[in-house]
Design goal:
The protein is α/β, with parallel strands linked by helices. It has three domains: about 5-60, no CATH class; about 80-250, Rossmann fold; about 250-324, Beta-grasp domain (Ubiquitin-like (UB roll)), CATH 3.10.20.30. It is built from ten helices and 13 strands. The strands form three sheets. It has a six-stranded mixed beta sheet, with helices on both faces. Strands 10-9-13-11-12 form a five-stranded mixed beta sheet. The chain has a two-stranded parallel sheet with strand order 5-6. A hairpin with a 2-residue loop joins strand 2 and strand 3.
């Protein structure tokens, strides 16, 4: 099957050939990948581009002055990876200190965060990875940040409720679009390479006039985004924020059990909503999906222990017993 690549793809390919650094090459390859139509004719080329991006990313990490092996590109851990972004001094580092095991530098002055810092946030019986990132501001965004934000499962946009909230949101949207990332609202004509889910977190709700500013933020953006007001420093609203993050991810938790034994509720399989028994089996072990005969289900089935086929769509809280 022919690839039928559009003219924009060949323009991006020309930019790749002209690129001098790994960072420039990665950006061009990601653009080629985003422009390329998705069908069987492009499967091989798509896999080749991903492999080249991975190789160049490792090369970039090794180079002095770029991303070091200690830390710029973060491996995903837990049920999901959420990048925490926002303007300078909005409280991103304080948030990680309050809800995760991470210890980023917390200061009263802006631009203290220069490298990404991951931390694991507990929510009920799962862990969600939050990553503190450098502030989004003109002329301060490093090449690796766009790559990190595109690879995250979602963005948590922090806004300082003690300042001009609408100007902050406009600035965040514009800086994301410079990195060719959209959250569904356009401020420029930049070519977008990825769409990201986003939760808006209004921080410093304990400050004077913060409630009024949060109302302004809700009136402007409340229809487009989930939102929550918190104080990371005073630990106000953090549990509600965790629930909002989980809802935004649109995932389900599925529990497994062996025949004749009780289910394990401490380590659920986390899957996108709409996933099937077959997809859950593949998550448990790569060979289980191919060998799966059937499963027994407790939870959303009409009867406990009902036999279901591999294409059965699971619900949050279901318990499955896999038979191979």
């Amino acid at each position: 099957m022919p690839a039928n690549l559009p003219p924009q793809y060949f323009e991006a390919e020309k930019n790749f050939r002209a690129a001098k650094t790994p960072q420039e090459k990665i950006a061009a390859l990601e653009e080629m990948l985003a422009i390329m139509p998705k069908h069987k004719g492009t499967d091989h080329l798509r896999a080749d581009l991903r492999a080249r991006i991975a190789k160049l990313t490792l090369e970039a990490e090794k180079r002095p002055g770029t991303a070091k092996r200690s830390g710029k590109l973060i491996t995903k851990e837990g049920a999901a990876q959420i990048a925490v972004v926002g303007p300078p001094n909005v409280g991103k580092s304080q948030l990680l200190c309050s809800v995760t095991n991470a210890k980023p530098l917390v200061t009263d002055y802006p631009f203290a965060t220069t490298s990404p810092t991951p931390g694991m946030m507990g929510f009920e019986n799962i862990k969600i990875q939050l990553i503190d990132t450098p502030p989004l501001a003109p002329q301060s965004v490093e090449w690796w940040l766009a790559h990190l934000l595109r690879k995250a499962d979602a963005l948590l946009i922090m806004i300082d409720l003690g300042a001009d909230v609408l100007s902050q949101m406009d600035a965040v949207i514009i800086e994301l679009e410079k990195m060719r990332i959209s959250i569904g609202i356009r401020k420029t004509d930049a070519l977008i390479l990825s769409e990201q889910k986003a939760l808006i977190v209004g921080n410093k709700i304990d400050l004077p006039n913060a409630s009024a500013n949060y109302q302004v933020l809700q009136e402007k953006y409340g229809q487009q985004f989930p939102m929550v007001a918190i104080s990371a420093k005073e630990r106000i609203g953090l549990e509600e924020m965790k629930h909002k993050i989980y809802q935004m991810l649109n995932v389900i938790r599925v529990y497994t059990k062996a025949p004749g034994q009780k289910p394990v509720f401490t380590d659920p399989v986390v899957l996108p909503r709409g996933s099937t028994v077959e997809q859950a089996a593949a998550d448990v072990h790569k060979d289980f999906a191919a060998k799966l005969k059937y499963a027994r289900l407790w939870g959303s089935g009409k009867h406990d222990g009902i036999m279901v086929k591999r294409n059965y769509v699971l619900a949050d809280g279901d318990i499955i017993e896999l038979h191979i």
